[in-house]
Hints:
It is a single chain. This protein is mainly beta and 86 residues long. It has a single domain, classed as Roll (SH3 type barrels). Helices cover 10% and strands 44% of the residues. The chain has two helices and seven strands; from the N terminus they run H-E-E-E-E-E-E-H-E. Strands 5-6-1-2-3-4-7 form a seven-stranded mixed β-sheet. It is globular. The mean pLDDT is 88.
Amino acid sequence: MARIEDLKQKEVINIKDGARLGFVSDVDINIKTGCITKIIVAGPCKVFCFWGKDTEYVISWCDIKRIGDDIILVDVDVNCVLRNVG
Length: 86
């Protein structure tokens, strides 16, 4: 059984283009079933990462192809899963 803290230590990589999306920052859980429905990965930095991040990747659990010891492989269209925060 994996814990949410274990997921946060894994890097997310998109198998469509080999891009490193980042590390899991949060998860979305269905309260009724107790199952994880989505993982959330902080988006790319703004200018030189001095100012906060204003985007995040919201990836459905069904788009996760493999969870390894160090990485999570996903198959997504980055433009479709990138959303503005706030």
